[in-house]
Amino acid sequence: MKKILYPAAAVLVLLMAAFTFFTTQNWKISSGYSVKFTGKYADGAFESMKGTVVFDEQDPASAKFDVLVDVSSINTGNGLKNRHARGEKWFDAEKYPYIHFISSEVVKTATGYDAKGTLDMHGIKKPFTIPFTFTRNGDKGVFHGTFKVNRGDFGITTPRGDESDYTHLTVTVPVTAR
Known about the structure:
Blueprint: H1 2-25, E1 26-29, E2 34-38, E3 43-46, E4 49-54, E5 64-70, E6 74-75, H2 79-86, E7 98-108, E8 113-121, E9 124-137, E10 140-150, E11 166-177
Antiparallel strand pairs: 1-4, 1-11, 2-3, 2-11, 3-6, 4-5, 5-7, 7-8, 8-9, 9-10, 10-11
């Protein structure tokens, strides 16, 4: 009887450990996220995003980010600027409704992590790296990243070859374990 009990107990422990491992890796994006931007021509935020987040700070190689930002949710605090930003000359939200990032690799760095992948914006896909930190508090956590995007690389505005081509972003994403 003992010969059967020990292997059965071992299998049960392994199954429970595997279940815990998978449930702590999958995160649900919580309300209160923030996608703020600053640039030469406008400051504001994108107010709508959704996506899939799989991340374990002990195993960043297993991470996967697939995030969509709704272009029409841009808010500069000025209705005319919002319409202009959504229009054909800038983001063309009707034709390109989302900014989409899909990671292909996540690596640990000296200051946090780098999510390397593809950024799809304005119909142009380019390799892109988003540096970020992650702070866990039990079954909740917060991702935070600060980076810049060259709008000219994505066909948004005519590049000038200087700092005005860049938009600086600060992204804060609270998450809850699924």
